[in-house]
Amino acid sequence: MNIQHIDRNEAAKQMAVEFVEKAKARDLTVGIIGLGYVGLPLAEAFINSGMRVLGYDVDEEKVAAIKSAKTYIKHIPDERLADMNDTGRMDATADPSRLQDADAILMCVPTPLNIHREPDISYVEQTTETIAQYLRKGQIVILESTTYPGTSEEVVRPILEKSGLKAGVDFAVAYSPEREDPGNPDFNTNTIPKVVGADSKHERDMAEALYAAITTPFVVPNMKTAEAVKLTENIFRLVNIALVNELKVVFQGMDIDVWDVIEGAKSKPFGYMAFYPGPGLGGHCIPIDPFYLTWKARAHRQSTRFIELAGDVVMAMPRLVIETVAHGLSERLKKSIAGSRILICGLAYKKNVDDMRESPSLHLIEMLQERGAKVDFYDPHIPQVPETRDHPEFSGMKSIELTRGNLAAYDAVLISTDHDNVDYQMIVDAAPLIVDTRNALADFADSHGEKILKA
Questions:
Q1: Predicted confidence (pLDDT) per residue in 249-306, tens digit
Q2: CATH of the domain at 402
Q3: Which positions ≥6 away from 441 have C-beta within 8 Å?
Q4: Which residues participate in catalysis according to the annotation?
Q5: Which of 59, 157, 211, 328 is the least crowded, having the fewest Cβ atoms under 10 Å away?
């Protein structure tokens, strides 16, 4: 056997043994790149496990907020940031050279689509280039961002090896997709199993030992498989969301309420899982992730017609909602959308969070304005619209105060997000017309059905 091969295998084995021992002893510094909705809960989980955390973000305001325990994510309050700081094991920095202090480096960066529904992995590439400048022996680098199968192998690993170090020998590479669900009261980082994949046993051992400190790892054979797991989870959701939205439209034509149908179907204790219609796709996963696979599949001359059709069905939902608004204004108030004042209720992509990434509400505002409506929004979790990639023109737009007087000034209220802490009684009492995309007003159908339209 080649002596050099034996030496490399021994080096890899020794690297893994030392890392695993330190992980079991909670004697690791975990570097987390990107301190947003994924990175910050991950940092908290590792702090609570007893490990040290080095959080890195190019946004110096986030770094300062963490140091001063001032939250920028609503479901992680100031008190939890303060508790992290009080351990003495939480550090945050905007200095990339500090990454060499970390034993593990986890990348939690955006992976959006471009206007052609093609993957934009520029954030992954730029971040990996930064890591490569400070990479040292013994570290493990793990991508957590959702991406197409092959990214870690074809993009991340080659960039890291520009450092002159050899992956699998001098340092480790793995992939472990994030599974955060912001605001979910039933699951958190510690209770959601973590899929882990790496291309060698030694690297898998290191990644498994790292995540075992905070949750239950589920190890798959390689990085491509782990990347495919994440896409499969979200494609499953996309297809079923598309199906229930299509059923909504079909049943509406038959004068059947899809929400009643779903409740009936849920009574079956097996073979059925409830999905719900809405105004369109939202969040950082479902509107984006499936199309990473469709893009990669084309490179392998494979078709993904089912996935693309599901995407087309759901992408059509906002326009159908707008048509319902137009119909309601015309039939019930004898008004046109043009010149009407419309209030969007809920800007977040889902209930009870301040997360508005890819929110369908933004598209609804845009389409209503294009048709001449005067549009405002109300969201108890989002007082002001931050700058977004797709809709920078809405930056600075402020939530109105929800009062009877303010509501009376609008021709219609469009419920796009069904937050729990909204006074729906006030809305049905004061608004002349309400278009409900979330069945938020189910309890008011008997008393105020004449002014409520489901969409």
A1: 999 999 999 999 999 999 999 999 999 999 988 766 667 778 888 888 888 889 899 9
A2: 3.40.50.720
A3: 415, 424, 427, 428, 434, 448, 452
A4: 285
A5: 59
